[in-house]
Amino acid sequence: MSDTDETTDTDATDDEPTEKRLVSGWHGRYYEDFEVGDIYKHPFGRTVTETDNVWMTNVTMNLNPMHFNEAYAAETEFGERLVDGTFVIALAVGMSVIDISVNATANLGYDDIRHHNPVFHGDTIFAESEVLHKRELESRDHVGIVETELRAYNQHGDLVLSLERTPMVLKRSHADPSAAEPPGWPEGIGTQPEDL
């Protein structure tokens, strides 16, 4: 079933004008959509650049020379600078948002964080999340808690990071998503059904 506010002629060719329609994009998962044991491979890898690492170390005032001093890092067991681990965490969590927490009302915790292998400039990171547990809340009927394990890998398939993440996720019945007002859009902004 398509979530559209208008229909269009499916027999039209590329040269013929068609009716415009407002079609829903991805609204993210709601509490009801999560099933224990599901694994979501998050779309798109992201190559880590030297700029990412320099900015992160400067912004967070991380003074470990492993991240910004090439001469120092060259003398270590790694032979080059390492990417700041907090950047790797932020990147992997960010990659998971599209599948896990677009509709989160709060992140309750990040637990059991482990850096399994170093990340270097030029590495491409990929992430996936597994649903470990979910539960209803007696105190809040509009959300539920979803516990996930987030895993990040480099382009060689090496596990570089794992952590448990626990968002409180909105229930679909309280979200009322639509093509005209997807998550994060204020009412009345952009194309509306009456514009078509």
From TrEMBL:
Signal peptide bounds: none
GO molecular function: lyase activity
Region (Disordered), start-end ranges: 172-196
Gene3D superfamilies found in the cross-reference section: Hotdog Thioesterase
InterPro entries in alphabetical order: HotDog_dom_sf, MC_hydratase, MCH/BMMD
Name of the protein this chain belongs to: Acyl dehydratase
Natural source organism: Natronorubrum thiooxidans
Organism phylogeny: Archaea, Methanobacteriati, Methanobacteriota, Stenosarchaea group, Halobacteria
